[in-house]
């Protein structure tokens, strides 16, 4: 069974940057051919070419609706919704973003409206914040490893084994370990913050990586390409969806879901409070949550589905049935906003840098 969705998006650090929009809006006319059809505006951090199956599926089910799709960075989505709303204007009808903290902040601060959907009551409790912000994907953080470097032995399966391996190998692996730079990678910071909550001895892991001369990067690709060609033996806390895509194309890349615990992040969808056509936003959200929409995510986008109605490969249900309490999904709740507190963020980064300086 395949446990990792293959993320086709490039550069997750870019996806989590707080910069401006990436591309000009793309317009998809209504399939009905009506030049005066209603238009839904979508702000999304998923690259437009990769979002095509979802857009096509939505329009097949809603041939009377045209789609104005704006492919944006996550920070730009947040900033634009706030700016447009505060100015008394109208904004997107649907927002889909991998920045869990920013999406929840929109919801908590009154920039998202309640959307009671047919599946709201059945949606996992951790994935639904007051029917305003819904987690729509299920993506674990994993260890990645260079398979030829582990011939004759198992790769680390827990953080304790990760530390033991680094200590045992010493100079043989110095400079050959990679992870995210939490100052530049939003997903890296999220995973590190969850590590601190889940594992009391996490700083032993960070110190061990510091002693091993860990290299820091803002993108998954930079780490995975070095694991694939053997420059690195291990990568820590790599977004599993992206790692799986690399593993499918590079046979020397192996993946481990840490057995002590595996953090899982999600992309969140919501209907903004100042949406120009909130009824269309809810239609789009309903399609995302529907059996058909979730199957498109799992099978065509290769991103794991959350819906309890979907079983089989690339689903939260199948992963949880096998791995159970090992999986630690990041709850969609105001608790995510702690990662936006600049004082707490600075303290975590300062401690991180101090631990790594031991190298």
Q: Give the beta-strand count.
A: 14
Task: State mean pLDDT (0 to 100 scale).
Answer: 90
* N→C terminal distance: 39 Å
Assembly state of the chains shown: single chain
Gyration radius, rounded: 20 Å
Q: Going across the biggest sheet, name each strand in turn.
A: 1-3-2-4-13-6-5
Note the main sheet: 7 strands, mixed
**Uncertain segments:** 1-21
- Class from secondary-structure proportions: alpha/beta
In sequence order, what are the helices and strands, one letter per element?
HEEHEHEHEEEHEHHEHEHEEEHHHEH
The geometry reads as globular
Question: Which percent range describes the beta-strand content?
Answer: 15-25%
Helical fraction: 25-40%
Put simply, the count of helices is: 13
Helices, strands, pairings?
Elements: H1 12-15, E1 26-28, E2 38-44, H2 48-61, E3 65-71, H3 74-86, E4 94-97, H4 100-108, E5 128-129, E6 133-135, E7 139-146, H5 159-169, E8 177-180, H6 186-198, H7 202-211, E9 215-217, H8 220-228, E10 234-239, H9 240-249, E11 253-256, E12 262-265, E13 268-270, H10 278-289, H11 291-299, H12 316-323, E14 327-329, H13 342-356
Parallel strand pairs: 2-3, 2-4, 8-9, 8-10, 12-14
Antiparallel strand pairs: 1-3, 4-13, 5-6, 6-13, 7-10, 7-11, 7-12
Helix pairs in contact: 2-11, 5-7, 8-9, 10-11
């Amino acid at each position: 069974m395949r446990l990792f969705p293959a993320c086709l998006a490039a550069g997750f650090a870019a996806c989590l940057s707080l910069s401006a929009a990436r591309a000009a809006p793309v317009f998809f006319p209504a399939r009905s051919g009506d030049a005066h059809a209603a238009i839904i505006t979508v702000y999304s951090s998923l690259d437009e070419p990769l979002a095509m199956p979802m857009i096509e599926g939505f329009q097949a089910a809603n041939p009377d609706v045209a789609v104005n799709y704006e492919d944006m960075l996550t920070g730009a989505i947040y900033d634009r919704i706030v700016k447009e709303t505060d100015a008394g204007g109208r904004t997107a009808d649907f927002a889909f973003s991998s920045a869990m903290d920013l999406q929840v902040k929109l919801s908590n601060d009154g920039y998202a409206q309640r959307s009671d959907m047919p599946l709201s009551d059945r949606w996992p409790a951790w994935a639904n914040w007051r029917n305003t912000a819904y987690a729509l994907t299920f993506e674990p953080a994993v260890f990645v490893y260079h398979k030829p470097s582990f011939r004759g032995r198992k790769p680390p399966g827990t953080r304790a084994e990760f530390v033991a391996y680094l200590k045992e190998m010493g100079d043989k692996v110095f400079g050959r370990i990679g992870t995210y730079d939490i100052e530049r990678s939003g997903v890296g910071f999220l995973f590190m913050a969850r590590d601190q909550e889940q594992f009391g001895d996490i700083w032993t892991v960070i110190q061990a990586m510091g002693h091993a001369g860990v290299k820091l990067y803002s993108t998954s690709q930079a780490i995975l390409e070095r694991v694939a060609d053997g420059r690195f033996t291990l990568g820590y806390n790599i977004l599993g969806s992206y790692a799986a895509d690399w593993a499918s194309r590079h046979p020397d890349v192996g993946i481990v879901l840490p057995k002590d615990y595996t953090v899982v992040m999600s992309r969140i969808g919501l209907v903004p409070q100042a949406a120009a056509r909130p009824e269309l936003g809810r239609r789009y959200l309903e399609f995302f949550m529907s059996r058909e929409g979730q199957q498109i995510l799992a099978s065509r986008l290769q991103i794991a589905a959350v819906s309890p109605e979907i079983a089989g490969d690339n689903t939260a249900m199948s992963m949880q049935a096998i791995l159970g309490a090992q999986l630690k999904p990041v709850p969609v709740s105001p608790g995510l906003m702690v990662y936006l507190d600049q004082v707490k963020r600075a303290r975590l980064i300062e401690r991180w840098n101090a631990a790594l300086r031991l190298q």
